[in-house]
Amino acid sequence: MSENIKVVVRCRPMNRSENENKCENIVEINEYAVSVTNPSARLAPKKMFIFDSAYDMITKTDVIYNEMCYSLVESTIEGYNGTIFAYGQTGCGKTHTMQDPGYFIAKFFME
């Protein structure tokens, strides 16, 4: 098992309020990068951020679990230390990722 830190980002889907207010998505995501358009200056260059992995708003939680968490959970069961840490501002999607109704990542650490 390698000892390293991976920084992964997931863009959550727009919530009901954002959809009702017809908010526009200003984030583009590919496998490792996130680019953000300044809504006040659309002609300005996009801000680009690079991560170990990046997931868009349609990626299912089980895909993220299988790609990023499964090996860590298995190693933890074998006695190694491991941590999955969800960080971000209020409303950014931490709970959506850790407690997605269809796939509950956190349950693997509570059983």
Overview of the structural elements:
- With 111 residues, the chain is an alpha+beta fold.
- The chain has one domain (8-110): Kinesin (3-Layer(aba) Sandwich).
- 28% of the residues lie in helices and 15% in strands.
- The chain contains four helices and five strands, in the order βαββββααα.
- Strands 2-3-4 form a three-stranded antiparallel sheet, with no helix packed on it. The protein has a two-stranded parallel sheet with strand order 1-5.
- Strand 2 (27-29) and strand 3 form a beta hairpin.
- The model is unreliable at 106-111 (pLDDT under 50).
Element layout with pairings:
Blueprint: E1 8-10, H1 16-20, E2 27-29, E3 33-36, E4 47-50, E5 53-55, H2 61-77, H3 94-98, H4 107-110
Parallel strand pairs: 1-5
Antiparallel strand pairs: 2-3, 3-4
Can you give me a brief rundown of this structure?
With 111 residues, this protein is of the alpha+beta class.
Structural class: alpha+beta
Q: What average pLDDT do the residues reach?
A: 83
The total of beta strands comes to: 5
Distance between the termini: 23 Å
Tell me the overall shape: globular
CATH superfamily: Kinesin motor domain
Helical coverage, percent range:
25-40%
Main sheet overview:
3 strands, antiparallel
H-E order: EHEEEEHHH
- What is the spatial order of strands in the main beta sheet? 2-3-4
**Count of domain modules:** 1
Name some characteristics of this structure.
111 residues; two-stranded parallel ribbon; alpha+beta; 5 strands; disordered C terminus; 4 helices; single chain
